[in-house]
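This follows on from our talk about sequence and fold. Can you supply me with one protein entry, sequence and fold together? Could you add the entry underneath, on a fresh line?
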Amino acid sequence: MGELRAVEVGWLPGRPDDGSDQCAHGTVSLTVGDQTLVDPSDGEFTLSAAGLYLLRALGADHRAGDGLTDGNALFPCCGHSVFEIAGRCVVMGCDSGVDLSVTTDGDTVTLSRGDRSAVLARSDWRTSVLGFVEQVEAVYSRSVPRAAPSDAADAAGWRLFWEEWHARVRAAAEEDGGAGATGSAR
């Protein structure tokens, strides 16, 4: 069994929660057995983008720099902008963060970072990802409502982001027998 959890989740450090920050930020802990693949000492990430990427990785393998993460790391440092491009949500960030490879083979998932790798049951990975996105959703639920972006392109990107997020949460929860995240963020 693996443990994937958001640590110290919130908004941009040093800024009040005034609803202007669209992205949840924080650190991450990901451990499978005796392998620690991501640790809070790896730095702060944009957890909302990481949540979307993790949800995408439930349905497709991920390798560093591929289209699943829009060329960002699986746990990206930044998610500067969210755009709708050809009907797809694209998150633009920087080239920093922690990238893992996620490979599914039947009922198992292999997570790899550099020379470290760990294998866990696909159902355990799905449950871990759903728990992580539920943690991210919780910060939105207990915070000041996010202000709608004034820029039309930003607003369209965020609308698509949350539509994809909720659809993927629902699909994963159904596959997991109805357990997991509620899909209530924003």
